[in-house]
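Hey, I was hoping to borrow your eyes for a little while. I've been staring at a protein lately and its backbone has me curious. You're getting the sequence in one-letter code plus the fold written as tokens. Would you mind checking whether the tokens look sensible for this chain? Here's the protein in full, and shout if anything looks odd to you:
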Amino acid sequence: AGAGALVAARLPTANAVSGSRTGSGIQAALNAVWGDELIARGNALAVSLSVRVKGRAVTIDQAALAATYPNATDHVVVMLHGLGQTERCWQSALADGAASIHDVLQARAGLSPVLVRYNSGLSVLQSGAYLAELMESLSANWPVPEPRISLVGYSMGGLVARSAYASGITAGQRWVQQTRDLISVGAPHHGSPIVRGAFAGSRALRIARTSRPLSDFLETASSGIKDLQDGGGVAEMLEEAAAIPGGALTGVRQHFVAAVVTGSDRHPVGLLVGDLVVRVPSATGRTRSSHNVRVLGGRRHFGLLSDPDVVGRLLDWLELSA
């Protein structure tokens, strides 16, 4: 965080960093590890939640949105990145050389993809609350009145999407009534064994005096990273929201994409390790329904956003809302 402060002091503006591909990537990585601390210090490198087009933040008012989205439709698809990423993760070419997920959705009639950048170092619940506020403003100022809304989140983004929806119900916000789908791609709804293992190792490092400083360093990781141990309490928050009289939880469809590294999604090794970051029960939110779950074999976590099968599944689910 101190190094970030020194770097920020030498920059002409923070926008020069956040607007460039390389700068925003470095900024996102710093925020993943120390994002909450950067905000607490008022550091210029702290990421603020915003809608982004070509790396630049978009003002959420009717005139700015109409100018930015001249072909706006009545179905807004809000897309959320994972830990240490930016919205550009949705704009990488697919493995078969085809256009990115964002471009495919943008070209599909009736869909208006909206890319959001957030500070992945904040707690999932805090990011969700900020996103809920943004969604309320976005839906009220969208160029097409009364838009339908779908949220699509990759990895941590899936947690933030569900957290925002639960926060919106609790706050009585109007946009949740317009929301049709919550779609998660490789999201650790009940935690990641990789993250749990890292923090278990951190506690073990405290045994020896020589390794204790490394343990201290790991324990200073951001709230966002720590939330990936167990899902950040989002599942519990959704349960509480479902109990609110008049809550909109029953009116939304929840969809889950999970993956395993083995060719068969029923192979014991695949069931044990999942996609090497998230296991299937966590990625599917422990749901028992087969209609809104897709488990892909022979895939790894960080290859999901370049997978044509993921795009096909997203389109199938989104077009159900037409």
Q: What stands out?
A: The chain has a mean pLDDT of 89.
